[in-house]
Design goal:
The protein is of the alpha/beta class and 369 residues long. It is built from 15 helices and eleven strands. The longest helix is centred in the C-terminal third of the chain and has 18 residues, at 351-368. The chain is globular and about 65 Å long. The structure holds nicotinamide-adenine-dinucleotide-5-hydroxy-4-oxonorvaline (NHO). The site of nicotinamide-adenine-dinucleotide-5-hydroxy-4-oxonorvaline has 31 residues, from helix 1, helix 4, helix 9 and helix 15.
Amino acid sequence: MTKDIKVAIIGVGGVGKAFIGQLANFIKKNSSTVSVSAVYIARSTAALISKDFSPLPLTAFASEELDAAGTAPLSVPDLIQFLKESGSETILIDNTSSIELANTYPDFLKAGINIATPNKKGFSSEEKLWNDIFAAAGNNGGGGGYVFHEATVGAGLPVISTIKDLVDTGDEVTKVEGVFSGTMSFLFNEFAPISSNGPVRAFSDVVKIAKDAGYTEPDPRDDLNGLDVARKLTILARLCGLDIDSPTSFPVQSLIPKPLESASTSQEFMEGLPNFDSDIGLLAENAQKEGKVIRFVGSIDVLSKAVKVGLEKFDISHPIAGLKGSDNIIAFYTKRYGDRALIVQGAGAGAEVTAMGVLSDVIKIINRI
Ligand code: NHO
C-alpha cells in the first residue's frame, strides 16, 4: 500500500519556490511508493487551500499569482484543524522566517503534525521554545509529530545530522568551529583572499558587490551584525547539550560601525560604510604581516561552555583561510576523531541548496511515518 501524505507549505519566497520545484520532482519519481499531495500553499497575504484534499498544482507561484488565485491564509488553529481533518499523515513545511509561526510548532507537533523547516527562529530563540518543541515532538520517542531542521545551519550540508549522529552514537563533541555564514564567507574571501598581499579592495566595495549580486540580506546589516551566525551556533551548542538562553547570551562581534547602527535605511548605511573602511583594512593588513588573513567565524568550546562569534586571524594554510565563494566549513572535534577534525564543507547558502536540506528532512519524516 502506498503511503498517503498531505503537506502544507507556508512561505513561497526564494527557498519556498525552490522547495516546490524539488518536491514536484520527488513526487514524480516516487509515485509508486508514496503519495504526497500539497493541500495548502500560503504566503503572508494569501493561501491556496484544497478543501477536498486533492493535490494542488506544484508550480512555483509568483507572489502576485498566489495573491490573485488565493484566499486569506488560515489561522494556526484552523490550519491544524484542517490538516487533522485530512485523515492522512501530514507535514508542515515552514519556509518563512516568522517567529510567530515558530512559536506555534509545539501546537502542530502535539496535534501529530510533522514539521520540516529552514526557519532558524524556533530553534535559536528563547530556550523555553526549544524545550517546548522537543518535549512535544516524536523525535525522542514522544507521542507528537517529528520535527527536522537540517537547513537551519549550513543549508543542505549535513551539519545537524552529523552532530546528532556523533552524539547519539556516544561520541563526545569537544569543540565545533567554522565559517557558518555564506554571506560573511563571500565578503572575506573577496576582501582578503589568501592569494593576495593584504586586502584587494575596500571592504565597503565588497559589501556593495555582494549586495548587488543578491548574496546579502536586503539590508546588509542583517548579515553584518553577526546574529545569523549566532543563531546557528545557538542551535549547534544546544545539540551538544549546552544550555543557551538566547543568541544574544554570548559574545557576538558586530561588523556594523557604531555610528551606522542608527542609519534609518539600508541606503544610508551603504553610503556611510566607506568612512569606516580603514578600520577593517588595518585589521587585515596587520594579519597579513603575520602571514594570516581575517575571517568571520564562530566556535563552541563544549568543555568550557564558551560560545563566540567574530573576526579571527588564520594562517593562510588553514582550511578556513582557503575557502572559496560563499562556502561554509564546519569542523567537529570529538573524542573519537581526536586532533584531526571531522570536516563538512561546501555551499552553505542559496535557495536550491537550502531547499534540498528541507526536502531531505521531508524524506526522513516520510521514512518514519
Ligand atoms: P524570503 O524570500 O524572504 O521568503 C519568505 C517567504 O515567507 C515569503 O513568501 C513571505 O511572504 C513568507 N512569509 C513570511 N512570514 C509569513 C507568515 N507569517 N505566514 C505566511 N508566509 C510568511 O526568504 P527565503 O530566502 O526564502 O528564506 C526562507 C527561510 O529559509 C528563512 O527562515 C531563512 O532564514 C531560511 N534560510 C534561508 C537560507 C538561504 O540561503 N536563503 C539559508 C538558511 C535558511 O543556509 C542559508 C543561509 O543560512 C543563508 C545566510 N544568509 C548565510 O549563510 O549567508
